[in-house]
Amino acid sequence: EVHLVESGGGLVQPGGSLRLSCAASGFPFSAYWMTWVRQAPGKGLEWVANIKQDGSEKYYVDSVKGRFTISRDNAKNSLYLQMNNLRAEDTAVYYCARDLHYTSGSLFQHWGQGTLVTVSS
Amino acid sequence: EIVLTQSPGTLSLSPGERATLSCRASQSVSNNYLAWYQQKPGQAPRLLIYGASSRATGIPDRFSGSGSGTDFTLTISRLEPEDFAVYYCQPYDRSPPTFGQGTKLEI
């Protein structure tokens, strides 16, 4: 059974940093693209970033480019999101998802339970 | 960039009734690469439908998807209490990934 468990969320001041982790199990982690999706309180879903199986390709939504970095450690079956220079508008639940990546797009087959990031002074 | 419009924003129905949710795209979705997700309060989204009409693993057959091009529909034939949730559509024929704003299905 596919299992994705996020951790690392919390309260951080504007301008601060946080590193999210996602522990994967139940599938060959190194064979799949992986994605981070976020959801601001009471709002809809927003894709944040994704990463190719070997980490050689990474893509980001414009609003986080230059501030967030997605990475993975296939030996540890883990996905990460380093978030720097955080802003109030980054406040959201962050989900990791297994990404069935097509030539042009991504389908999100499995999701973790999410971790809440709150950016506030 | 594609714009997705889900309607209605909120749908109020009772258990046993039929629900019809719409997703309209501003551009044609290639290969019917359109997915639907269900999100219950406090839970992560769950993939329901992919390829516009294929049910994901474990999804009951009361859920069905249809449509092509720019107009897609999610139908729940007979609502169960656990079906009251928010539903999102997402085309996966393009990047960056985008989601519709969601339809809230409430009792």
Percentage beta strand of chain A? over 45%
User: What is the average per-residue confidence, as pLDDT of chain A, rounded to a whole number?
Assistant: 97
The fraction of residues in strands of chain B falls at over 45%
Number of strands of chain A: 11
**Count of DSSP-assigned helices of chain A:** 0
Total E-strand runs of chain B: 9
Short summary:
The complex is a heterodimer of chains A (121) and B (107). Chain A is an all-beta fold and 121 residues long. Helices cover 0% and strands 55% of the residues of chain A.
Which features would summarize this protein structure in a list?
heterodimer; A: 121 residues; mainly beta; four-stranded antiparallel sheet; globular; B: mainly beta; six-stranded mixed sheet; 51% strand
Structure description:
The complex is a heterodimer of chains A (121) and B (107). Chain A is mostly beta strands and 121 residues long. Chain A is built from no helices and 11 strands. Chain A has strands at residues 3-7, 10-12, 18-25, 33-39, 45-51, 58-60, 68-73, 78-83, 92-101, 106-111, 115-119. In chain A, strands 2, 4, 5, 6, 9, 10 and 11 form a 7-stranded mixed sheet that branches. Chain A has a 4-stranded antiparallel sheet with strand order 1-3-8-7, with no helix packed on it. In chain A, a hairpin with a 4-residue loop joins strand 9 and strand 10 (106-111). Chain A starts with a strand and ends with a strand. Chain B is mainly beta and 107 residues long. In chain B, 0% of the residues lie in helices and 51% in strands. Chain B has strands at residues 4-7, 10-12, 19-29, 34-39, 46-50, 54-55, 63-76, 86-91, 103-106. In chain B, the strands form 2 sheets. Chain B has a 6-stranded mixed sheet with strand order 2-9-8-4-5-6, with no helix packed on it. In chain B, strands 1-3-7 form a 3-stranded antiparallel sheet, with no helix packed on it. Chain B is globular, with a radius of gyration of 13 Å. Classes of the chains: A mainly beta (121), B mainly beta (107). At the A-B interface, strand 5 and strand 10 of A face strand 4, strand 5 and strand 8 of B.
